[in-house]
Write a structure and sequence with these properties.
It contains nine helices and 14 strands. By secondary structure, the chain is of the alpha+beta class. It has three domains: 111 residues, Nucleoside Triphosphate Pyrophosphohydrolase; 30 residues, no CATH class; 143 residues, Nucleoside Triphosphate Pyrophosphohydrolase (Alpha-Beta Complex), CATH 3.90.79.
């Protein structure tokens, strides 16, 4: 404990007191139980192999290679499925492990790489963007594509050193950038952002940005700023975007969001029933009832008048469903 009663530095006195008390009581609900699928990714990213050129070369011939065009779209078969030739199939063209990014190995031990499509002599009948793949491809292939797209964006945006301006070369399977002039190391960047289902205990707070489809609303979100906790980010962002005061919040889940390089950290929050007031960040924000949200989740059809929610590929929709399930359970358990 720090001297002012805070559990650790840079947070307020009394922060996380409820969690501290629960641990002191020995509340086992705070501890993970069993195996959680969310702890496992599409691939074993195999950091141990990134610095071993011989090991990567040995994987290359049988590896599957995701090919991305300059706009980040994946090459696909005629039916829209992933086109991922083996390293041996593309070895006649330029590229290979030197230019490819090592993504990891799958459960069978097969390697996966990504490569700029313009570097190979192969062609595919279609190109698929990441949002379409997220909705239509198997989870493993969509996850591999998301990883490849995020790394492609980072490498494309960080070609020169931000210390001296020298050109950056890439090592360790494409995961480490090193300035050829000053030697400064550069690593892939991920920007954390909170996304939060805010409730006053009865209603759900949703907002919309300019340019969205008519009547499309979503839970609120915003980037983490330096020197603040995620919980502080939740309160600040909700206040900045809607003028609503958050009382408490709890983390639920996360989602990589490579558009181009965010990590969405999902929360649910309890807030005061303030009247929303927007500025330049949102076009509108308002409270919606359980019945309005339920109707929107049930239909997903634009009838010209009703609320429309985020697509099901987004954690935004999942958070909305979590809130709705909580409200339904609350109604069921409340004596009439």
């Amino acid at each position: 404990m720090t001297g002012d009663g805070a559990p650790f530095a840079f947070v307020e006195a009394g922060a996380f007191a409820g969690i501290d008390a629960a641990f002191r009581r020995g509340d086992s609900r705070l501890l993970p139980h069993g195996d959680q699928p969310e702890c496992h990714g599409a691939l074993d990213r195999a950091d141990r192999l990134r610095g071993d050129p011989a090991a990567l070369a040995a994987l290359w011939a049988e590896a599957r290679v995701v090919l991305l065009d300059d706009d980040g779209r994946a090459l696909a078969e005629a039916d829209g499925s992933l086109f991922a030739p083996t390293g041996a199939q593309i070895s006649q063209g330029p590229g290979g492990t030197g230019a490819a990014i090592f993504l990891g190995v799958d459960g069978s031990g097969r390697g996966w790489f990504s490569l700029e499509a313009r570097l190979v002599a192969l062609h595919a009948p279609r190109r698929i963007d990441l949002r379409t793949a997220a909705a239509e491809w198997p989870a493993v292939e969509a996850g591999v594509y998301a990883q490849a797209r995020a790394l492609q964006h980072w490498r494309g945006r960080y070609r020169y050193c931000n210390v001296c301006g020298g050109e950056i070369g890439f090592e360790r399977g494409g995961w480490l950038g090193r300035c050829n002039q000053c030697g400064q190391e550069h690593y892939p960047r991920t920007d954390p952002a909170v996304i939060v289902a805010v409730t006053d205990g009865e209603r759900l707070l949703l907002g919309r940005q300019p340019g969205w489809a008519p009547r499309r609303y979503s839970v609120l979100a915003g980037f983490v700023e330096p020197g603040e906790t995620l919980e502080q980010t939740v309160a600040r962002e909700v206040m900045e975007e809607s003028g609503v005061r958050v009382r408490a919040c709890r983390y639920l889940a996360s989602q990589p969001w490579p558009f181009p390089g965010q990590l969405m950290l999902g929360f649910i929050a309890l807030a005061h029933p303030d009247e929303p007031q927007v500025d330049d960040e949102l076009e509108d924000a308002r409270w919606f009832s359980v019945d309005e949200v339920r109707a929107a989740t049930a239909g997903d059809v634009d009838d010209g008048s009703s609320l429309r929610l985020s697509a099901t590929i987004s954690i935004s929709r999942w958070l909305t469903n979590c809130w709705l399930q909580t409200m339904d359970a609350k109604r069921t358990s409340t004596p009439r």
